[in-house]
Amino acid sequence: MENNNNKNTYITIGVVALVIVVLAVLWMRNGAEPAEENNEATGETQGATTGEKRFSGTISAVDTACFADGVCSVTVDGKKVILVQGGLALDSGAAVGKLLGVDSIGDLEGKMGAFANVYAKETPDGGYTLYGNSEYYVEVAKVSDK
Predict the structure, then answer these.
(1) What whole-number distance in Å separates Cα of residue 81 and Cα of residue 140?
(2) Is 11 helix (H, G, I), strand (E, B) or coil?
(3) CA–CA distance, 86 with 51 (Å, rounded to integer)
(4) Mind telling me which residue stretches traverse the membrane in this protein (predicted)?
(5) How confident is the model at residue 80 (pLDDT cuts 50, 70, 90)?
(6) CB proximity list for 34: less than 8 A, separation 6 or greater
(7) CA-to-CA distance for 7 and 9, rounded, in angstroms?
(8) Tens of pLDDT along 52-79?
């Protein structure tokens, strides 16, 4: 009889430990999302999702190579942001952000020196892209959003 009691005790302890582990995992998964980090030295804000950044600055370069199946990009505050990548059609279903404040990519060439706000994903090469989230944007503006 005592052997059964020991067996029941071990089973009960095992079940309780398993429940605690499951609850801990669920609690960690449903925990609060990380807050945005603001780096005042660079003016960058990192979003809750890793690699998402917000920054502002002056437009210093525009590349319209996507018109010939290349990459269209704009450089803001020294950071290259990919707007459209040749071979990745905008109607392919891929989530892509928006260009705001101008009618088209070609209009950016007339906005050299203009101020822009950016919300984009950082790429492994240290650049940025509007691909991956329809909420990303490059906004040509006269006033910063800071």
Answers:
(1) 13
(2) helix
(3) 23
(4) 9-28
(5) very high
(6) 48
(7) 5
(8) 999 999 999 999 888 777 888 999 999 9
The amino acid at residue 125 is D
Q: Is 3 helix (H, G, I), strand (E, B) or coil?
A: helix
Residue 21 contacts residue 33 (beta carbons within 8 Å): no
d(CA 84, CA 140): 16
Tally of CB atoms within 10 A around 88? 13
Cβ neighbors of 58 (< 8 A, separation 6 or more) are 76, 77, 113, 114, 115, 116
Q: Which residues pair with 52 in a beta bridge?
A: 121
Segments in the chain forming alpha helices (H): 2-29
Q: Which two structure tokens, joined as six digits, stand for 140?
A: 């040509």
- The sign one gets for the Cα dihedral 46, 51, 52, 53 is positive
Q: For position 34, what pLDDT does the model report?
A: 43
